Each structure stands twice: as C-alpha cells, then as structure tokens.
C-alpha cells in the first residue's frame, strides 16, 4: 500500500542478474607440488573474498558460488591459483584466467574444462547466467 501518491516505489530491481558457478578441481595434475594451494574466485576487485584452500595432491570437493552482475559485456570472472610452500614464503602465482560473463549462454548451463598455462591443475567449471529485465 502506498502511503503518499507522490512517492516512487520500484516494483522489481532490474539489476539483479545472477551468475552461478561450480568449480571442480582435478587432483592428478599437480600432485608433484608441495604446500598449500589457493584458488581465488570472483571479480577482479573481490576475488580474494572467495577462496578454495587445499593441499597439493589431496581430494578437493567441488564448490558452488553465486555472483551478481549488472552488465555481462563488462563483467568477468577471475580464477587465480597460488602455491604457498610455507607460512613465511611469498605465494607463487601459478596462473590466472579472466573469463568474460558474456561467453556463457543465458539460462543454459555451460560446462567447460579449463587449465592454467603453467603446470596448473585441470578444472571443470559449470556456469549459468540469469538476466532479469
């Protein structure tokens, strides 16, 4: 119910587009590495807020993430893999992938197998993009 006739009340927020991402890391390719592996997932600004930490050579459960975006042409998802050999050493970047959201179909689930250039593990990502008009 509207209190005042002059008040503007939005019906639906049209900027709630969602991008669902599932990451499954294959374990056989990087068993020769030592230490902790860290995979950061997200936008360029906020990728460190979503991380998967695992020991090299261990079994990794798949993880699901949900992101919001405004424009698929300007938005991208960044996957960045680091190796931390010890607490005191600096993290060594193994690889980084920048995947534009417009590469994924709207309302369909895409499955892709990806790999970092420098010896990184193979990963299977499943993603779906939903747009609200």
Automatic annotation (TrEMBL):
InterPro entries per the record?
Answer: T_SNARE_dom
Per the database record, which ranges form the T-SNARE coiled-coil homology domain?
1-33
The name on file for this protein is t-SNARE coiled-coil homology domain-containing protein
Q: What species was this sequence derived from? A: Trichomonas vaginalis (strain ATCC PRA-98 / G3)
């Amino acid at each position: 119910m509207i209190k005042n006739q002059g008040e503007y009340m939005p019906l639906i927020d049209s900027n709630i587009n969602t991008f669902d991402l599932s990451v499954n890391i294959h374990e056989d390719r990087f068993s020769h590495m030592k230490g902790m592996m860290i995979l950061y997932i997200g936008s360029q600004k906020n990728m460190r807020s979503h991380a998967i930490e695992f020991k090299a050579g261990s079994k990794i459960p798949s993880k699901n993430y949900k992101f919001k975006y405004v424009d698929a042409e300007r938005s991208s998802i960044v996957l960045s893999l680091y190796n931390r050999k010890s607490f005191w050493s600096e993290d060594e970047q193994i690889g980084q992938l920048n995947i534009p959201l417009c590469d994924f179909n709207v309302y369909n689930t895409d499955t892709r197998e990806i790999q970092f250039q420098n010896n990184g593990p193979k990963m299977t990502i499943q993603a779906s993009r939903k747009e609200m008009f």
